[in-house]
Design a protein that fits this description.
Blueprint (H helix, E strand, L loop, with lengths): L17 E7 L2 E7 L5 H12 L7 E6 L5 E3 L16 E7 L6 H4 L3 H16 L7 H16 L20 H6 L4 H13 L6 H12 L8 E6 L5 E6 L3 E6 L8 E4 L3 E7 L2 E6 L7 E5 L2 H21 L5 H100 L3 H9 L2 H15 L5 H11 L1
Parallel strand pairs: 1-5
Antiparallel strand pairs: 1-2, 3-4, 3-5, 6-7, 6-12, 7-8, 8-9, 10-11, 11-12
Helix pairs in contact: 3-7, 4-6, 4-7
């Protein structure tokens, strides 16, 4: 998300203004300030613009001339602290971390900023994390950004342009991007029905168990000149060896620390127990001591605040959060119910489609059988008709043959006529033949039939 907003704090005309670019984990803001604007005024402008209510976790910082991050002092003027460049670059980021993310981070906007900040730390390898934990956190990041896994929305290769794992983890194993994506997707499928807020809180809950989570490291030296690391977090102070930022050598909870003070480069931590020795170390730069002291004071105040009674504002935010969570749970139940109904309807649809397909196949078979039956009937009828015609013709032929058998008996008497018939001329033959039969047929009409049959044959 990127948006620019300009707010001018000038009451009069003719005063010089300065542009300030404030970078947040999810946006870039632009403000116009004058030479008298203090850090607190600028901080309130940023809070008003972003709508944050849990202000005690955030602060402004900038890079000094030594290229070292320095926290902006709110009671002092902005221009007296920052380098004189235009526009003035500032970063609105997390200064103090909670002990319990799920309980202390109430507002969704606060959770979003923490989620983006911790994710950036892991990807930039500022926060060390094991490979298997990185895969789980990457799947939760996908859930927070894209919702439930859907193969149609998230096809194979959709994570190609997304940075989900630190470069150290990718180079640590001989695995292709497709293999990493497969593992992330397997974990991504298990985060079903998690809303964005829940996925971010779960991401932060897993991240807060990392050894380097919420720890601000400072390079220090002991009395012997040995280089060490001082870690300041929400629970107290820790001393680490120079080659190990994960396991503290010495830990001082806030409940056991009486005072924290410094003088130039010398830093002294006094314990509550009078018999315990004071911890003395030396920093490289006096400005580092100021940053250490600010972090110690702020973390200690939040430590005491957590163990006290919540203010009215915090109680109101918690009540709103409970209502939001109850609505979220109702929406989840409704969503799960709708998903089940949808799956049930899809199964019924598949069953109906299967039945319809089987019915269509049966209808097609019946149609084919009917066509074959019609063809058979047609052939049979055609054969029957042909047989009836043939039988009629055969009957007629048989009848004619029987008649000719009777007639052939009378033919023997006409042999003499046949011999004469071949000697006469053609013209006379016809007239002789006609006259001969005409005379013979005068007696009975039956002889006409034989004459016709003879001519036909």
């Amino acid at each position: 998300v990127f948006f620019v907003e300009s707010i001018t704090m000038l009451k009069g005309k003719g005063k010089r203004t300065y542009q300030v670019e404030v970078t947040t984990p999810d946006a870039c803001l632009s403000f116009s300030i004058d030479s008298k604007t203090t850090g607190e005024q600028l901080f309130q402008l940023i809070v008003k613009t972003t709508g944050l209510r849990e202000l005690w976790f955030f602060d402004l910082r900038f890079k000094n001339q030594n290229d070292r991050w320095t926290w902006l002092k709110r009671h002092r003027k902005v221009l007296s602290q920052v380098p004189h460049v235009q526009p003035i670059p500032l970063e609105f980021t997390i200064k103090f971390f909670p002990e319990d993310v799920a309980y202390e981070l109430i507002e969704t906007s606060t959770q979003t900023l923490f989620f983006l900040h911790v994710q950036k730390q892991i990807l930039d390898e500022e926060l060390w994390c094991k490979a298997e934990h990185c895969v789980v956190l990457a799947s939760l990041a996908l859930q927070a950004n894209f919702g439930d896994y859907d193969p149609d929305v998230s096809p194979a290769g959709f994570t190609k342009d997304l940075q989900l794992l630190p470069r150290r983890v990718i180079n640590q194993y001989q695995m292709t991007p497709e293999m990493w994506e497969e593992r992330i997707i397997d974990c991504y499928k298990r985060n079903k029905n998690l809303f964005t807020e829940e996925a971010m809180v779960k991401y932060l809950t897993l991240a807060q168990d990392l050894e380097m989570y919420g720890v601000s490291y400072f390079a220090i030296k002991n009395k012997k000149g040995t280089v060490l690391w001082l870690g300041v977090d929400a629970l107290g102070l820790n001393i680490y060896k120079s080659n190990d930022k994960l396991t503290p050598s010495i830990s001082f909870p806030w409940s056991e620390i009486k005072t924290v003070e410094y003088n130039d480069k010398k830093f002294v931590i006094k314990a509550v127990d009078k018999q315990a020795l004071d911890l003395v170390f030396f920093s490289v730069d006096p400005e580092v001591n100021k940053s250490i002291l600010q972090l110690c004071i702020g973390n200690h105040e939040l430590y005491l605040k957590r163990r006290g009674t919540d203010s009215m504002e915090v109680q109101q935010m918690r009540a709103e959060a409970e209502e939001r969570h109850s609505r979220m749970n109702k929406n989840r139940e409704k969503l799960i119910k709708e998903i089940k109904q949808r799956k049930k309807m899809e199964r019924e649809k598949e069953k109906i489609a299967l039945k319809l397909m089987r019915t269509e196949k049966k209808m097609e078979q019946v149609r084919v059988c009917m066509c074959v039956l019609c063809i058979c009937v047609y052939v049979c009828v055609s054969h029957m008709c042909c047989c009836s015609v043939l039988s009629c013709r055969l009957k007629r032929v048989c009848h004619r043959l029987k008649a000719l058998q009777k007639y052939s008996a009378n033919r023997s008497k006409e042999q003499k006529w046949k011999q004469v018939h071949f000697f006469v001329s053609r013209k006379r033959r016809g007239s002789f033949f006609n006259n001969f039969f005409r005379k013979r047929n005068r007696t009975t009409s039956r002889n006409v039939f034989f004459e016709n049959e003879w001519r036909t044959l």
